[in-house]
Every structure is written in C-alpha cells, then in structure tokens.
Amino acid sequence: MNIEQFREYCLSLPGVTEEFPFGEEILVYKVMGKLFTLTHVDVFESINLKCDPEIAVELRERYDGVKPGYHMNKKHWNTVEIYSNIPDRLLYQWIKDSYDLVVKSLPKKVRESLQS
Questions:
Q1: Which residues of 70-100 are buried (b: 16+ CB within 10 A; e: fewer)?
Q2: What strands lie across the sheet with 26-31, from one edge to the other?
Q3: What are the pLDDT digits (tens) for 17-61?
Q4: Domain containing 98: what range?
Q5: Which Gene3D superfamilies does the record associate with it (predicted)?
C-alpha cells in the first residue's frame, strides 16, 4: 500500500473527511468528525488505527509490525508499520475495522445517514 492508495480508500468510505488538525505533516481521516486513522504525510511508514482493546493486543502479539498506538491511547489504538510484510488486504481490512468501530459509536441518526 502506498499513500495514494491509503488516501483513496479512506476517502471512499461514507462520511469521511481528510484534515490536518495537528499540523501540515499529519494526515488525519475522520468519519463525521471522529478520528479513525492518521499517518505522516511525507514519510508514509505507518498508520495509526483505532481498534477494539482485546483485538489490539491480539494483533500486536501476532504481527511484528503492529505496535501500541504511537502518541495515542495504547489501549484503543495500534500503529501499523506499512512495510512490515503485512498483506495489503489486511491493511485495508484494519482501516475498515477502525472506521466501523468509530461509526458504531456515533448516534443512531448519524449512523443511519451514512447508509443513505
């Protein structure tokens, strides 16, 4: 996965915006104003993804390229190293899982608006 593939995939999900709230180097994707993934725009080596706490630990134990979230709540976030032999299909799935986890926390009316 490269940064353009990452961007295209994130932006293809309903209700997603691309922002730079932490400065011009940190690319952030939000769904309905809630953060679900971020990366360094110039050095695309890792992405931070929201994750169910139990699954987060499981992924860290299973994959060398999955670490506790860098500069994030380590219980709820993982940092995934892009070039750590993790297949792209898993990266895409984990991005979608992060998105879905955030969507699940949104009010029912907002969730329903994303399905329209």
A1: eebebeebbbbebeeebeeebbeebbebbbe
A2: 16-19, 26-31, 34-40, 46-50, 77-81, 66-68
A3: 999 999 999 999 999 999 999 999 999 999 999 999 999 999 999
A4: 3-109
A5: 3.90.1150.30
Tell me, what CATH number does 45's domain have?
3.90.1150.30
Residue 46 amino acid letter: S
Only one residue has tokens 């992060």, namely: 98
Residue 114, domain member (yes or no): no
pLDDT at 113 over 70: yes
Strand pairing partners for 80?
47, 66
